[in-house]
Amino acid sequence: MACRRLFPLIFLALCGTLAHAAPVAIALHGGAGTLSRETMTVEQQRDYLKILDTAVETGYALLKDGSSGSQVVRDVIRLLEDSPLFNAGHGAVFNWEGSHELDAAMMRGDTLAAGAVAGVTRVKNPIEAAYAVMTESPHVLLSGQGADAFAESQNLQMVDNTYFSTPRRAAAWEQYRADRKTVDAKHGTVGVVVLDSDGNLFAGTSTGGMTGKRWGRIGDSPLIGAGTYADNTSCAVSATGHGEFFIRWQVASDICARVKYQKIYLQAAATHVIHAELASVGGDGGVVAVDPRGNVALVFNTEGMYRASINGRGEKEVAIFSEDSVEGEGVDSDG
């Protein structure tokens, strides 16, 4: 009788161990574009690599502890939004008028629920506003003053628009006004994609948009299917690059559709879309993506993309330039 009573306990213990051993993965980016090793100091590279490593390790630890992908995406993106190094949150670029308009989106792959905000000016962490739209409203995308008002009604932290300003972005804006040229004009975004221990995929993206943007311009980041997408049957994607191209080519959902319907590996799907479809028409940028098996893809057609990942096998990469990639980056596996 004692042995019979032990069998269910052993079975439950084994099930718990197996559940805990479910693969988790995370990939994130901090923007792509006209990055150049020649124009970045060693100290700047060190600062970026440090926060990228902190962000990916923070997210991975939460995933290993069983946190939901929803929570992890928000926590990691908040960390990046709060950093002055990236074009999102504190550190967002200036628009034509000299203020800041921010966009963000979030999507979950099990239910395809999504939320996004565009052109917010007072929400400290726009990713939280996107999450609130997804969970507390019947809508998917809110914009402008209405999105700010909704965020305030959800008791999110609100700030004066000057909070987003930094000396670096102010200098870029002045340069843009002088000659319409700036390295930050098109490519600043942060994004996170995860596979959590429940087997669900999540994606989130946040951005300050383009330096000198006018007339309420909105890029791909808050548009579901363009800059942000997640579907448990295929993959989760967050994009960064020249938004007008990512919108027209529906980059994020196209990658997932190729995985789902063509039955090809994530790396192959992302590589084709970024290096063939986009590059052939002059669209530059990149994506980070993760699939239900914990494979990650970090793909870009520019000189660099701020990026970090830990895949389902626990393999980590933190890098900026293309030549920094580790051997075997993004290789899909059935394991």
Rg estimate, integer Å: 20 Å
Number of helices: 9
What's the number of extended β-strand segments?
12
* Strand numbers in spatial order across the main sheet: 4-3-2-6-5-1-11-12
Task: Give, in order, the helices and strands.
Answer: HEHHEEHEHHEEEEHHHEEEE
Relative strand content: 15-25%
For the record, give the distance between the C-alpha atoms at the N and C termini, rounded to a whole number: 39 Å
Task: Tell me which oligomeric state these chains represent.
Answer: single chain
Q: Major sheet: size, sense and barrel closure?
A: 8 strands, mixed
Shape field: globular
Number of domains: 1
Mean pLDDT: 90
Task: Assign the CATH architecture.
Answer: 4-Layer Sandwich
Class from helix and strand fractions: alpha+beta
Approximate helicity band? 25-40%
Q: Can you tell me the residue ranges where pLDDT is under 50 for at least 5 consecutive residues?
A: 9-14
CATH topology: Glutamine Phosphoribosylpyrophosphate, subunit 1, domain 1
CATH class category label: Alpha Beta
Your description of this structure?
With 335 residues, the chain is α+β, with helices and mostly antiparallel strands. The chain has nine helices and twelve strands. It has a single domain, classed as 4-Layer Sandwich (Glutamine Phosphoribosylpyrophosphate, subunit 1, domain 1), CATH 3.60.20. The chain has helices spanning 2-20, 42-64, 69-81, 126-136, 144-153, 167-179, 243-248, 251-261, 266-278; strands at residues 25-33, 102-108, 114-120, 141-143, 190-195, 201-207, 228-231, 235-241, 285-290, 296-300, 304-310, 316-321. The chain has an eight-stranded mixed sheet. A four-stranded antiparallel sheet has the order 7-8-9-10. The radius of gyration is 20 Å and the shape is globular. The two termini are 39 Å apart. Residues 9-14 have low confidence and may be disordered.
